[in-house]
Write a structure and sequence with these properties.
This protein is mainly β and about 110 residues long. It is built from one helix and seven strands; from the N terminus they run ββαβββββ. The strands form two sheets. The protein has a five-stranded antiparallel sheet, with no helix packed on it. Strand 4 and strand 5 form a beta hairpin.
Length: about 110
């Protein structure tokens, strides 16, 4: 029986600040956003088959944004957070959050 993706990751909730610009009043403020940080488990779960081992070898840590909208601190209107920032891969070697080292990520070809 194949394992579910949740079996390969540890989840934790985290709050991070980001600067966003309100599309209505054009003011930039810092907003707190909730994220789910998914880090790969240090070893393969019990009961994994060959397909699961291959999948586990390719997995990377990532974050998924929980909040879809924020309320402007200046004008009080609610606005959506840009969707291209809803999932971010975590680069452990550099200690930073961003695209994979060695070039552009796969999704960047759609953002040109």
């Amino acid at each position: 029986m194949a394992l579910d993706e949740r079996d390969f990751f540890n989840n934790r909730n985290e709050t991070r600040a980001d600067k966003l610009t309100c599309p209505r009043c054009r003011r930039t403020n810092e907003y707190q956003m909730r994220w789910v940080v998914r880090t790969r488990k240090d070893r393969l779960p019990h009961g994994a088959d060959d397909r699961d081992r291959a999948l586990y070898a390719k997995l990377r840590d990532y974050m998924i944004r929980v909040d879809d909208a924020v309320t402007c601190k200046t004008c009080g209107k609610k606005f959506d957070i840009p969707s291209q920032h809803s999932m971010v891969f975590i680069d452990k070697s550099a200690g930073a959050v961003g695209p994979a080292p060695g070039g552009a990520d796969e999704d960047s070809r759609f953002n040109r």
